[in-house]
Amino acid sequence: MKIRKISPGDLLVGQLLPWDVYGNGGGLLARKGQLIGNISELDSLAERGVYEDWSAALPQSREPQSVLRLLTCAQLRLQPVLQQIASGVPVAHARGVLEEIAALVTEAVRVNADVAVACILHQQSAMPYSVRHSVDTAVVAQVVALGLKKPDEDILTMTLAALTMNVGMLAGHDRLQASSGPLCEADHRLIQDHPRAGAVLLRQAGIAHAGWLACVLAHHENEDGSGYPDGNAGACVPEPAKLIALADRYCARVSRRSYRRTLTPNAALRDLLLEARNTDGLPCAVLIRELGIYPVGTCVRLLNGELGVVARKGLHSTTPWVTSLLGPHGAPLHSPLPRDTRAEHCAIREVLDLDHADLQFRMEQVWGRAAAQ
Q1: pTM to 2 decimals?
Q2: Among candidates 223, 221, 158, 168, which has minimal Cα distance to 196?
């Protein structure tokens, strides 16, 4: 056992302390299992704390990382950074902090992309929409970029842009999300101007990466020139920005929103495919290939009457594996049951709206430790 000084890289906001933390005089500062709630707590522990390192004396744990924890941590860390950038207050080492958050998203997708995609559907109340939506968009954009075999450097730039794409309307984003009435003229201006405002705020925060800023500025431009803020078209729109826009639209349509009907995942993909008919349809086709016709996390009813959730992709996009949770008469099953939807009696009869599926479950019941809280 060794006494070690805590370094900033040892801990993350949103993480549970993996050990007791002591001050230089030996007094207990924080107990194992305590949640690190914000950057100030993290900085305080890193400045004053030491811990007992038993790693050399204990066998190495092979427990898989939790995708849910990684994404939750990314959201918890992103929220105060975006708020600070949006306020115009200088952010120390803004690019480095945001790259660390992007690394959490990348690790989540690497560990289990299926669970990362399911979190978009089943963690909708965990954080404010403005923060959660940016992380969700980064996840889907990464899935598409990996399917297109994009270079790691391009994926990082795209991820950073997705995380910061809406900083120019951060203050009004959650308000607009909760609004059920028609938007006023000021709200329309806020929406139209937020890509340009976001790029300005990022420059003020010390972000000078041209590709990153270009993606933030262009993430609402369209292939046919009908987008905003500049009405650019075709090759004038950076390709990573097109992937962000695609991911943005998918995540927005499957999210609960007061002013717009929430779409089921398969309906959202169908609409995106129809929209892509007159443009470059390759990214959309790759999105559907990677997510499947029934994306992981989709709530379904099977031909045998059971209700469940798509747990993982199958051999074909139309026949995923489903975990059944409720029996034909609505009673909870004794334990979740895996169903191969290639079997005739287990084929998918219908896709259920999240709000009306009547499925209450913890993600860990379906995806195990990769989805542990």
Answers
A1: 0.83
A2: 168
